[in-house]
Amino acid sequence: MDNDSIDQIIDTHRAEPSALIQILLDIQAERRWLPREALERVSERLEVPMTRIMHIATFYKAFSLVPKGRHEIHICVGTACHVRGAERVLDSVEDLTGIQPGETDLDLKFSLETVNCLGCCALGPVMEIDGKPHGKMAPAKIADVLETYA
Amino acid sequence: MPKNSEDTSTSEYPSLGKIMSRIGSPAELEELRKGLQAERDPAKPRITLCGGSACLATGSKEVAAGMEAELEAQGLSAQVDLRKTGCRGFCERGPVVVTHPDESCYLQVEPGDAPEIVAQSVNGHTAIDRLLYTDPGTEERIQRESDIPFYKHQVRRVFGSNGSIDPKSIEDYLALGGYSALEKALFRMTSDEVVEEVKKSKLRGRGGGGFPTGRKWEESRNAPGEAKYVIVNADEGDPGAYMDRSLLEGNPHLILEGLAIGAYAVGAREGYIYVRQEYPLAVENVILAIKKAEEYGFLGTDILGSGFDFTVTVHQGAGAFVCGESSALMTALEGRVGEPRPKYIHTAVKGVWDQPSVLNNVETWANVPLIINEGAEWFGEFGTEGSKGTKIFSLVGKITNTGLVEVPMGMTLEDIIFKIGGGIPGGKKFKAVQTGGPSGGCIPEALLGLEVGFDELTEAGSMMGSGGMIVMDEDTCMVDVARYFLAFLADESCGKCAPCREGTGQMLKILTDITEGRGREGHLELLEELSEVAREASLCALGKSAPNPFLSTLRYFRDEYEVHILEKRCPARSCKELIAYHIDPALCRGCMQCMKQCPADAIDGGRNRIHVVDQEACTKCGTCFEVCPARYDAVRKTSGEPIPPPVSEEQRIIVRKSKET
Fold first, then answer.
1. Distance from CA of A29 to the nearest CA of B (A)
2. Binary contact (A116, B488; C-beta < 8 A)
């Protein structure tokens, strides 16, 4: 964990405490999670207590305090997908991966999250993996899709 | 050309070369606009391709690459313009391609269609039949976009330019008259007149509350404060609603122009765009738009030489539904946890850093330039008594034409759902339409004649919200819908006040019990009591409106609740714990489709053997029900009925007629 890249992110936001959320988002985008050392560095540079940082990091959905798997599965559970059977899709993905939303498997292969609308309701129910949407999902199709990810 | 510009389109538009720095006067703006328009030959073939998020998901990027390669290969890159626009709304049939000047509208285009479309766009005249819209009633092909029923009944004032602008090109926006409203406001109107015009238009907030925009502006304008702020609320969090995303992605300059006009009107020098980080394309396009607008002098210091200064900063939201609430959003802007505060004093008076702050939704800001350009009377041409103008709805769920539709306020739900939306697919029956997001409610068939408007929807027990419209058919369980929204709200409740934190949790628990067959008499009364407390005592709108999904479904679908509680049955056959699947032995032909595809290996069978569902192992995913060939139709989904006892092993052997003889 090098401090240089963290410092760089902090510097682009001029180390302003009001930019705390933006800084954390940038770190999350780069590392895909928020390692403790990074947060401590932010706390030190912004002169913001760790309690406030942890408050934010646990409040907002975008942040993860544990490492993410190689592939991030997002199951859309927006209303449009819900009425088209998103829950069945989620159940099947949970069964196949053995993880619940918010979790990462032990091989660090998949992380599973539910999201509230991906904005492509015509394709519902939608499962997105690493940003690629897989539309019109049904329990029987999921195993084939997951198999394409190594 | 503008300073620091890396614009590659300069050579394409020589008139840009004449501007050596920022635009310094209305005359210079006019000159630039005339130049841009003159350089655009309306007769030149142009292919526009929808690049909204929904079309990107259906492969618009690949189609674009295909088109580019084809233009290159045919040596037509100079003769044909290829423009990647924002969302055109007809997401059901994406990717959408429209060729000009003949306006042929091609749907569900694939990269392989590129050669034909390119050839057609140059030669013109004959449209490609197989890619056109087919009217489901008459089987007739419809060539022009504006003649397709989905578009024909819409009034696309705000959303219309989305389809003709490349969101990354400020030149496109300028050629269509962009920033003329800002110029008009700055040079030909006092800030008072701007506020007056917006007040006169009776524009109401498109984000949920429906608060009169002009009054909010006036309040901020008159409030004491060292600095004032204007903010775009693009924290669109309603599940199943994506119109703000599409506007911001597809026409970012329209929002910026509205925001700058608002800043001038209330006396703000700084503005924010609070946009969800889940919308990467919107973030990218709006950041680029700000940069371009600064280069041209529509933002920054001394805008258009008027002496008015205004800068805009993008703040990305980190994912919290409650941040759509004004006071929570402003707290988040300050870099803290987005929790709401009591609003005895409006945020318009004391908002970000305790300064007067005007927060409006994306669509509200997008209406402002239109009102300034065309006037309040023009704006009010459409609408009901209390709701003027047009509204964009996200028409989704069990609907034939999923997409974004802009209609005049006052259009009936029936017209929106059936004329524009094409009704319910699969021959199913309409049951209800849910509007207003998690704070809204469900409107039943009997009220389909309702005219959409802020007050009309509230009276019906729902609300306008930001414009989500989720259509539900006979297979949707209304108790489950209420449970779904409560689950959403309980998860999103920030936890600051007890009525919301504990109330939503308890309501969710009871509703879950009901949908899982543990409902008891007295549960409905208890839910009503909890609703009253949440409504009266919660700190912000999230908690106050949290009971709405329950109350509105109870109001119109009480019988469904009662059947769940008393008979432990789900009439829509949707609640997992209350349904069962079995195979009708008289109809099963042993084709093994269901057995092969069952993800839980819960079906016992084999060639020429009648299949049986193992009720213990069944996860009720419904796969067997869907894959059973229609000619057999042997899988039964039941609720509240006993499952017939399995047939004996001998009886399970299927003897084919052909083999008997």
1. 10
2. yes
Render pLDDT for B33-63 as a digit per residue (tens, 0 to 9): 999 999 888 888 899 999 988 899 899 999 9
pLDDT of residue B520: 95
Residue A83 is part of a domain; what is its CATH number? 3.40.30.10
Sign of CA dihedral A14, A17, A18, A22: positive
Do B239 and A77 count as a contact with CB atoms less than 8 A apart?
Answer: yes
Closest among B487, B522, B550, B515 to B639, alpha carbons compared: B515
Question: What is the pLDDT, as a whole number, of residue B360?
Answer: 96
Q: Which residue has the higher pLDDT, B265 or B324?
A: B265
CB pair distance less than 8 Å for B403 and A119:
no
Cβ A140–B240 below 8 Å, yes or no? no
CB contact under 8 A, A95 and B626: no
d(CA A24, CA A46): 12
Q: Are B615 and B642 in contact (CB under 8 A)?
A: no
Chain B, 14 to 73: residues with Cβ < 8 Å from chain A are 53-54, 57-58
Nearest-by-Cβ selection for B54 from A21, A116, A120: A120
B392 touches chain A (CB under 8 A): no
Q: State mean pLDDT over B624-638.
A: 94
Q: What is the pTM of this model?
A: 0.92
CB pairs under 8 A between A and B: 149
Identify the band that residue A113 occupies on the pLDDT scale cut at 50, 70 and 90: very high
Q: Answer whether B461 touches A (CB < 8 Å).
A: no
Query: Is there a domain that residue A64 lies in?
Result: no
Model pLDDT for residues B70-116, shown as the tens digit of each residue = 999 988 888 899 999 999 999 999 899 999 888 899 999 999 999 99
Between A20, A83, A126, which is nearest B470 by CB?
Answer: A83
Tell whether the model's pLDDT for residue B660 goes beyond 50: no
Say yes or no: B439 contacts chain A, CB-CB below 8 A: no
Contact B239 A79 (CB under 8 A): yes
Residue showing tokens 């609003």 = B343
Q: Please answer yes or no on whether B627 and A140 come within 8 Å at the CB atom.
A: yes
pLDDT of residue B409: 96
Q: What is the mean pLDDT of chain B?
A: 91
- The pLDDT, as a whole number, for residue B534 is 95
Amino acid (one-letter) located at B499: P
Are residue A31 and residue A75 in the same domain, yes or no? Answer: no
Instruction: Band the pLDDT of B127: cuts 50, 70, 90.
Output: confident
Residue with tokens 């013109």: B124
pLDDT for residue B278: 86
Domains within chain B, CATH numbers bracketed: 46-148 (3.40.30.10), 170-379 (3.40.50.11540), 390-476 (3.10.20.600), 479-567 (1.20.1440.230), 579-660 (3.30.70.20)
Residue B384's contacts (CB-CB under 8 Å, 6 or more residues apart) are B409, B410, B451, B453, B455, B456
- Interface test mutation site (partner B, options A12, A27, A76, A120, max chain B beta carbons within 10 A): A120
Residue B359 tokens read as 């927060």
> How far is A2 from chain B, CA to nearest CA, in Å?
24
Of B279, B321, B332, the CB nearest to A21: B332
pLDDT digits (tens, 9 = 90+) for B403-415: 999 999 999 999 9
Amino acid at B353: W
Q: Containing domain of residue A116, as a range?
A: 71-147
Which residues, other chains included, contact B642 with Cβ-Cβ below 8 Å and sequence gap of 6+?
A: none
User: In B107-239, which ranges are continuous DSSP H helix?
Assistant: 114-123, 149-152, 170-175, 180-188, 191-201, 213-222
A65 within domain boundaries: no
pLDDT surpassing 70 at residue A118: yes
Whether A82 and B237 lie within 8 Å, measured CB to CB? no
